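Incident review: delayed structure delivery

Summary: a single-chain prediction request sat in the queue longer than the usual turnaround. Root cause was a stuck worker, restarted by the on-call engineer. No data loss occurred. The affected request and its eventual output are reproduced below so the record is complete for anyone auditing the incident later.

Affected input:
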Amino acid sequence: MKITSVRSLLSFSALFLAITILAGNAFPQFSQVDPAFQPVPSKAPVAPPAGSSKGQLLQPDGRPTKDVAKTNSRLINGLSVTSFDATGTYVAEVTPGSAERFNKPGFRMRAAVIQTAGGPYFIKLIGPLKSVTRWDKEYEAFLQSLQYK
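Output delivered after worker restart:
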């Protein structure tokens, strides 16, 4: 079983951004993922990354990113999809486990959790605000094309 998309992610490859697609624990190299991104055995909806994926985005006024992020849940091709959209200063670790962090203001993160019979799938798109915003329509089209087979 896998999740497939009619559209390719190749159109995103020219951007400075990170797209991460995780299928449960199938990719141990992504062990630094926020605990909110772990598979859930129940059919309960999975929340988007509450701390903006381990605190990767900070808000200028100090509020938690989860308090200012836009979230929504919807059904796409029979799949329950919960989306997360936030802007802020990108402060993720330069490498996993590193004390050194980025400090890049004006970034945007879009994330989605897709519930399937085989467990949740996770998508994360992050990059400069203008770049991520430029690809809004394509990102939404990609989400709309998801199917579980």
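Verification: Helices lie at 52-55, 65-68, 129-134, 136-144.
Action items: add queue-age alerting; document worker restart procedure.
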